[in-house]
Design goal:
Layout: H1 2-47
Length: 48
């Protein structure tokens, strides 16, 4: 019985870790995208 519980806890913990990793990747992508769009708008304004 306790083996089932620990296995389930380990599974939930690994799922949480995966979620955290995905979140970090998403944050990284959004940060890069924001910087790129900011630079793009600066370039557009300077050419206008």
């Amino acid at each position: 019985m306790w083996l089932k519980k620990t296995r389930r806890k380990a599974l939930l913990a690994s799922l949480e870790k995966i979620k955290e990793d995905d979140l970090t990747e998403l944050e990284c992508f959004s940060y890069i995208f924001r910087n790129l769009s900011r630079q793009f708008s600066v370039i557009c304004v300077s050419f206008a």
